[in-house]
Design a protein that fits this description.
The protein is α/β, with parallel strands linked by helices. The protein has a single domain (about 15-215), classed as Rossmann fold, CATH 3.40.50. It has helices at about 35-40, 55-65, 80-90, 105-110, 140-145, 160-175, 190, 200-205, and strands at about 45-50, 70-75, 95-100, 115-120, 150-160, 180-185, 210-215. The chain has a 7-stranded mixed beta sheet with strand order 3-2-1-4-5-7-6, sandwiched between helices. Strand 1, helix 2 and strand 2 (about 70-75) form a beta-alpha-beta unit. The radius of gyration is 17 Å and the shape is globular. The two termini are about 20 Å apart.
Amino acid sequence: MLPFYGRRLSRKTKRFNSFDLENYEFFFNEINFNDTKKKLVKSFQNVNLEIGFGKGENLIFQSQIKKKDIFLAIDPFISGGLKLKKNIEILKISNIFFSNLTFSQFFEIVGDVNFKKIFILFPDPWPKKKHKKRRLINEEFVKNLDKITLKHSEILIATDDEDYSNQILKSFSKQNFFKLLLKTSDNQIFNDYKIYPTTYFRKAKRENRRINLFIYQK
């Protein structure tokens, strides 16, 4: 599986601030994930996942409208995790657990946890030809999604990169694990499916780029 490429800390983030996450009750890593797993089975209806949560905008929104669900979230960008931590504390949220693990690292420890919904909103498109192999979504990734989902689980993906859109379609179509329920560039669908208009969504709209939304079901 792919290693992580890119910066983990923004230039404005003080390095010592990243240590604030290590002992935070809603933060998990390879060492304490088994403790987090024990909390998943207590009182929540569904377990969901967001891969690449950014600033946590959609994650916070989902946790508020689905308070009986629990949300795991992974993003190696530590600055985003610090922002998410701040909002969890302000809003007193108790159904989000997050990590700075990459998907590859998370997949190695997830074990028997299965997800009802998986959100992948605006993954890095790595537009340069020599960097395309760094993209998250490929055939191997789709195979791994099959291993952490149940019958009728949904995968929701958004991107404003046309070449990546084509790669997403090809990667899923070459496997028979998921069927395509919807492919649309109608932004109203984001409201219909209650997907939060994140910073990347708004940026794409300002720059008049077409946003493609894919919804797959197992």
